[in-house]
Design a protein that fits this description.
CATH class of the largest domain: Alpha Beta
Low-confidence stretches: none
Helix content: 25-40%
Mean pLDDT: 83
Number of domains: 2
Number of helices: 3
Order of helices and strands: EEHHEEEHEEEE
CATH superfamily of the largest domain: Aminohydrolase, N-terminal nucleophile (Ntn) domain
Oligomer: single chain
Strand order of the largest sheet: 1-2-3-4-5
EC number: 3.4.25.1
Organism: Coemansia aciculifera
Number of strands: 9
Protein name: Proteasome subunit beta type-7
Largest sheet: 5 strands, antiparallel
GO molecular function: hydrolase activity
Keywords: Hydrolase, Proteasome
Length: about 150
Amino acid sequence: MPVGEITLHGVSGDMSDFQHIQHTLKSLLMQEYKMDDGQKLGTKSVYKCIGHIMYNRCMKGDLLRNSYVIGGLDNGQKMLLFVDLYGTTYQSATGREDELSKEEAMQILDECMRVLFYRDARSLNKLRRAKVTAQGIEILEPFMLETN
Protein backbone atom coordinates (compact mmCIF):
# COMPACT_ATOMS: atom_id res chain seq x y z
CA MET A 1 0.00 0.00 0.00
CA PRO A 2 1.69 3.22 -1.05
CA VAL A 3 1.27 6.01 1.49
CA GLY A 4 3.28 8.89 0.10
CA GLU A 5 6.78 7.47 -0.14
CA ILE A 6 6.06 4.73 2.41
CA THR A 7 4.74 1.32 1.39
CA LEU A 8 3.27 -1.33 3.63
CA HIS A 9 4.58 -4.53 2.08
CA GLY A 10 2.81 -7.26 3.94
CA VAL A 11 -0.58 -7.01 5.56
CA SER A 12 -2.80 -9.78 6.81
CA GLY A 13 -6.18 -9.66 8.46
CA ASP A 14 -9.42 -7.74 8.19
CA MET A 15 -9.79 -5.46 5.15
CA SER A 16 -11.80 -2.76 6.91
CA ASP A 17 -9.21 -2.55 9.71
CA PHE A 18 -6.49 -2.24 7.07
CA GLN A 19 -8.45 0.58 5.41
CA HIS A 20 -8.70 2.33 8.79
CA ILE A 21 -4.89 2.26 9.19
CA GLN A 22 -4.51 3.37 5.57
CA HIS A 23 -6.81 6.35 6.17
CA THR A 24 -5.03 7.24 9.43
CA LEU A 25 -1.60 7.19 7.76
CA LYS A 26 -2.80 9.29 4.82
CA SER A 27 -4.23 11.85 7.26
CA LEU A 28 -0.92 11.91 9.13
CA LEU A 29 1.00 12.44 5.89
CA MET A 30 -1.34 15.27 4.94
CA GLN A 31 -0.69 16.95 8.30
CA GLU A 32 3.06 16.60 7.73
CA TYR A 33 2.71 18.04 4.23
CA LYS A 34 0.73 21.05 5.54
CA MET A 35 3.47 21.77 8.10
CA ASP A 36 5.78 22.48 5.11
CA ASP A 37 8.88 22.16 7.31
CA GLY A 38 10.87 19.96 4.93
CA GLN A 39 10.53 16.91 7.19
CA LYS A 40 9.19 13.61 5.87
CA LEU A 41 7.88 10.60 7.72
CA GLY A 42 10.35 7.76 7.38
CA THR A 43 9.88 4.05 7.52
CA LYS A 44 10.59 3.87 11.26
CA SER A 45 8.11 6.68 11.99
CA VAL A 46 5.32 4.85 10.16
CA TYR A 47 6.28 1.64 12.00
CA LYS A 48 6.07 3.38 15.38
CA CYS A 49 2.77 5.04 14.46
CA ILE A 50 1.18 1.72 13.46
CA GLY A 51 2.58 0.09 16.60
CA HIS A 52 1.04 2.78 18.82
CA ILE A 53 -2.32 2.61 17.04
CA MET A 54 -2.45 -1.18 17.33
CA TYR A 55 -1.38 -1.18 20.99
CA ASN A 56 -3.86 1.54 21.98
CA ARG A 57 -6.72 -0.29 20.29
CA CYS A 58 -5.68 -3.52 22.03
CA MET A 59 -5.71 -1.81 25.43
CA LYS A 60 -9.25 -0.57 24.75
CA GLY A 61 -10.34 -4.12 23.87
CA ASP A 62 -11.13 -3.03 20.30
CA LEU A 63 -8.47 -4.86 18.29
CA LEU A 64 -7.65 -3.99 14.72
CA ARG A 65 -7.25 -7.48 13.31
CA ASN A 66 -4.16 -7.00 11.16
CA SER A 67 -0.46 -7.73 11.17
CA TYR A 68 2.00 -5.60 9.18
CA VAL A 69 5.42 -6.07 7.61
CA ILE A 70 6.99 -2.70 6.85
CA GLY A 71 10.14 -2.37 4.78
CA GLY A 72 12.10 0.62 3.62
CA LEU A 73 15.17 2.77 3.89
CA ASP A 74 15.74 5.49 6.49
CA ASN A 75 18.80 7.61 5.77
CA GLY A 76 20.26 4.74 3.73
CA GLN A 77 19.68 2.20 6.53
CA LYS A 78 17.70 -0.88 5.52
CA MET A 79 14.71 -1.60 7.73
CA LEU A 80 12.41 -4.60 7.99
CA LEU A 81 9.78 -4.17 10.70
CA PHE A 82 6.74 -6.05 12.00
CA VAL A 83 3.65 -5.05 14.01
CA ASP A 84 0.94 -7.50 15.11
CA LEU A 85 -2.67 -6.98 16.18
CA TYR A 86 -1.63 -6.50 19.83
CA GLY A 87 0.85 -3.76 18.99
CA THR A 88 3.82 -6.08 19.51
CA THR A 89 6.71 -4.83 17.38
CA TYR A 90 9.80 -6.54 16.01
CA GLN A 91 12.72 -5.10 14.10
CA SER A 92 15.03 -7.35 12.11
CA ALA A 93 18.79 -7.08 11.95
CA THR A 94 19.31 -5.81 8.42
CA GLY A 95 22.25 -4.31 6.60
CA ARG A 96 24.46 -7.36 7.06
CA GLU A 97 27.58 -7.62 4.94
CA ASP A 98 26.91 -11.27 4.05
CA GLU A 99 23.64 -10.54 2.28
CA LEU A 100 21.68 -13.31 0.60
CA SER A 101 21.28 -13.51 -3.13
CA LYS A 102 17.84 -12.69 -4.49
CA GLU A 103 17.23 -16.38 -5.23
CA GLU A 104 18.26 -17.48 -1.71
CA ALA A 105 16.02 -14.83 -0.13
CA MET A 106 13.04 -15.86 -2.28
CA GLN A 107 13.60 -19.53 -1.41
CA ILE A 108 13.62 -18.74 2.35
CA LEU A 109 10.58 -16.49 2.01
CA ASP A 110 8.66 -19.15 0.08
CA GLU A 111 9.43 -21.76 2.74
CA CYS A 112 8.32 -19.41 5.54
CA MET A 113 5.09 -18.59 3.73
CA ARG A 114 4.46 -22.29 3.04
CA VAL A 115 4.74 -23.08 6.77
CA LEU A 116 2.40 -20.19 7.61
CA PHE A 117 -0.06 -21.40 4.98
CA TYR A 118 -0.07 -24.89 6.54
CA ARG A 119 -0.64 -23.43 10.02
CA ASP A 120 -3.70 -21.34 9.06
CA ALA A 121 -6.51 -23.27 7.40
CA ARG A 122 -8.25 -20.03 6.34
CA SER A 123 -5.32 -18.64 4.38
CA LEU A 124 -4.61 -18.74 0.66
CA ASN A 125 -1.42 -19.77 -1.07
CA LYS A 126 -1.57 -16.79 -3.44
CA LEU A 127 1.21 -14.29 -2.67
CA ARG A 128 3.02 -11.20 -3.92
CA ARG A 129 6.64 -10.32 -3.33
CA ALA A 130 8.19 -6.88 -2.97
CA LYS A 131 11.81 -5.81 -3.10
CA VAL A 132 12.91 -2.56 -1.43
CA THR A 133 16.12 -0.92 -2.67
CA ALA A 134 17.58 2.56 -2.68
CA GLN A 135 16.26 2.87 -6.24
CA GLY A 136 12.68 2.23 -5.17
CA ILE A 137 10.16 -0.50 -4.57
CA GLU A 138 9.57 -3.37 -6.96
CA ILE A 139 6.28 -5.23 -6.46
CA LEU A 140 6.05 -8.45 -8.45
CA GLU A 141 2.97 -10.09 -9.88
CA PRO A 142 0.92 -12.44 -7.67
CA PHE A 143 1.80 -16.13 -7.82
CA MET A 144 0.56 -19.40 -6.36
CA LEU A 145 2.88 -20.96 -3.80
CA GLU A 146 3.46 -24.66 -4.42
CA THR A 147 1.85 -26.61 -1.56
CA ASN A 148 0.60 -30.13 -0.73
